Amino acid sequence: MKIIAFFNNKGGVGKTSLVYHLAWMYADLGLTVLAADLDPQANLSAMFLEEDRLQELWPDGLHPDTLLGVIQPIFKGTGDIQSPHLETVEADGRCLDLLVGDLGLSSFEDKLSDAWPRCLDADEAAFRTISAFYRALLAAAQSQEADLILVDVGPNLGAINRAAILAAHHVVIPLAPDLFSLQGLRNLGPTFRNWRSGWEERLEKNPAPELPLPAPEMQPAGYVVMQHAVRLDRPVQSYARWMEQIPTEYREAVLGQAAEEAIRGVNDPHCLASLKRCPSLMLMAQEARKPIFLLRPADGAIGSHAAAVQDCYQDFRTLALRIADRCGIPVALPGRG
């Protein structure tokens, strides 16, 4: 079982939509998939679930059926993680499970910040706090015998995301071809290395050998460029200019390697895909509660939209297989149903 986190400290790059569509694509490919919403904004949960169901999961008071409910005993200092509840979601005969997010997760930030330095003092409670997300993901995966977990996290470099990224075997970085994503890469690389080295140091202090803790992996699997729609005030040439700079920035900032040669855009082996955004199809998909590539004529995908749906299917299938290959996930390649 592999845990793959999708992360960029720059928001608005299409990260949550990417996780949503890849989760459905892996389900289409026959894998047992768990999507985990570790973003306190809970946008992934809102993409998967109807508002009425979310209202049931987020009542006044306790939220036992969300991720917040799983870690609530640690947050309150009354115990350890609870068994996670998973929501099963379906679309056109495919199904997967969701570990539901919660806006209340933001209150866990201070607890995680406080636990990080206390791990250096061999404080078992601190280790249980830092590993709470990881152990919740493990428990959820074991309950469903999941092949992989796709994790959505928020756009910041805070303690919640540190705990979420430490739980991951691999990290995929969604980008937009703009200055902000380049700056984001410059922040991410040093931060990843600091988190990894800091966790390695703390693991040596672990006083509870029986406690399941994540290894310091969080290996970069590559990046995905989420193309903007063309705007009159942002000509296509400007996007090409940023695209040309991404490979060098990724190597230097994220991998800590010198860029020995000029590699441009999608020719970069670390570029997993360059995906077009389809706003009209996205609205249609949200209405139908399914990914774009499963839209049918009954959903309104006719004419040129039908062709775009087929293109989207091939794009996400190719991306899913490429990520699986990078992360060591076996895929049997069934035909499309």
TrEMBL record:
Q: Which UniProt keywords apply?
A: Hydrolase
Domain (AAA) ranges: 1-200
Protein name, per record: Sporulation initiation inhibitor protein Soj
Which first-to-last residue range defines the signal peptide? none
UniProt enzyme class = hydrolase
**A single GO molecular function, which one?**
hydrolase activity
Q: Which InterPro entries match?
A: AAA_dom, DNA_Partitioning_ATPase, P-loop_NTPase
Q: What is its EC number?
A: 3.6.-.-
What the entry lists under Gene3D superfamilies is as follows:
P-loop containing nucleotide triphosphate hydrolases (3.40.50.300)
Task: Please indicate which superkingdom the organism of origin belongs to.
Answer: Bacteria
Organism field? Methylacidimicrobium tartarophylax
